[in-house]
Amino acid sequence: MDIILDFISVNFQLRLAIAAQTIEQMRARIRECTQFFCSGGIANNKMLAKLVCARHKPRQQTVIPFEFVPTLFEETPIGDVRMLGGKLGYAIQDRLAVGTMADLAAIPYEMIERHFEGQAQWISQLAKGYDDEPVKPRNNQQSIAVSKNFPGKNALTTVAEVRR
Fold this sequence. Notes:
single chain; mainly alpha; Alpha-Beta Plaits; DNA polymerase, domain 1; 8 helices; 50% helix; DNA/RNA_pol_sf; UmuC
């Protein structure tokens, strides 16, 4: 059994490495074509990739092997996780008296089920880093955001300076 687990682990590590190289090339091409920086998150699923992508914006990428998820979750507020940033996230924090994803992962399933009967399985799996939501390709962008900072002596102080 250990041989199989080692094989699976090595395969996933290789896939993450290939994905990281691919994302690095994509980010370089975006920079070359648009002069904009972007970040990237590489993980075993969409939820984790989005979570780690946000950690090093705007100019870096982050790879999170699955075995490091418990460490990541020790410092991850529940509200930072996709789908847990709104009412459900607040309800989880309030009813289960938890603040981080690691806290949530430590809650017995029965207790989660008592408070969130229809969603207990999904919440419990998410708390352990599992998410089976597929990544869906889309042709049209949903949003774009660009910003520029003007710190110190470059600070804009009048409307005329902003218009320039």
